[in-house]
């Protein structure tokens, strides 16, 4: 095997192994929003205390599942995280809406870390709480915490958005980031209208793997002809 062949095989195997997970959430070309289900995120435990989000089946959730914080959080940026990769096609100021519910009693909330690829323009207490402590899922308007800025240089680049498990048994079903486009595209007057928004596209890993295999085959055929 020549060095060229060995290098091609290495690149091919690296690309194939890197696509074992689904791709980023991609904003539709004509959409002024990005919408996705909470359970598709990458769940991590930065502080290693084995207390983080869990995915739970829930018939009342929009996708049949939700993520839930299993305990009283320590209000730390290093507590349990759910991270989402997003590819924007529109620059602008985005406002976050979260479909969530409490578990009854007190102290249900979600934590928004102040840092990241695109952070809050304004941070008050980094805490998003359900409108009710129990009951059905309800959309929460988080504009009181601030907005999210996507610059021109961010368009076409995969950015990460992270939320944290702040307080016990907070259920999170869905997210929408809405581009208000300098006031020309105001958010829905009735937040229930957000339910009609389709989820943004997430490329299937299989389609990417097939493309890589096809490219590898074409490369091999071309190499044989040259030889």
Notes on the structure:
This protein is of the alpha+beta class and 227 residues long. It has 2 domains: 1-22 and 203-227; 24-202, Sandwich (Jelly Rolls). The chain contains 2 helices and 13 strands, in the order αβββββββββββββα. Strand 4 (54-57) and strand 5 form a beta hairpin. Helix 1 packs antiparallel against helix 2 (205-226). The protein is globular, with a radius of gyration of 21 Å.
Describe the secondary structure blueprint for this structure.
Elements: H1 3-18, E1 25-26, E2 33-37, E3 42-44, E4 54-57, E5 65-68, E6 81-87, E7 92-101, E8 110-111, E9 127-128, E10 138-141, E11 148-150, E12 158-165, E13 171-179, H2 205-226
Parallel strand pairs: 1-6
Antiparallel strand pairs: 2-13, 3-6, 4-5, 5-13, 6-12, 7-10, 7-11, 7-13, 8-9, 8-12
Helix pairs in contact: 1-2
């Amino acid at each position: 095997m020549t060095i060229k062949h060995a290098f091609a095989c290495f690149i091919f195997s690296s690309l194939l192994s890197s696509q074992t997970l689904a791709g980023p959430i991609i904003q539709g070309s004509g959409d002024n929003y990005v919408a996705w289900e909470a359970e598709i995120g990458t769940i991590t435990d930065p502080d290693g205390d084995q207390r983080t989000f869990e995915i739970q089946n829930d018939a009342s959730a929009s996708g049949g599942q939700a993520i839930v914080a299993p305990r009283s959080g320590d209000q730390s940026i290093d507590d349990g995280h759910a991270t989402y990769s997003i590819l924007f096609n529109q620059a602008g100021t985005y406002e976050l809406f979260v479909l969530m519910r409490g578990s009854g009693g007190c102290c249900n909330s979600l934590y928004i870390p102040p840092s990241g690829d695109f952070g809050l323009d304004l941070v008050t207490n980094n805490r998003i709480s359900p409108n009710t402590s129990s009951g059905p899922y309800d959309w929460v308007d988080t504009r009181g915490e601030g907005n999210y800025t996507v610059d021109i240089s961010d368009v076409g680049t995969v950015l990460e958005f992270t939320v944290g498990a702040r307080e016990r048994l907070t259920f999170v079903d869905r997210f929408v980031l809405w581009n208000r486009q300098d006031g020309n595209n105001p958010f829905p007057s009735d937040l229930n209208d957000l339910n009609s928004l389709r989820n943004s596209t997430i490329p299937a890993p299989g389609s990417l793997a097939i493309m890589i295999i096809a490219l590898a085959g074409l490369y091999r055929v071309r190499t044989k002809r040259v030889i």
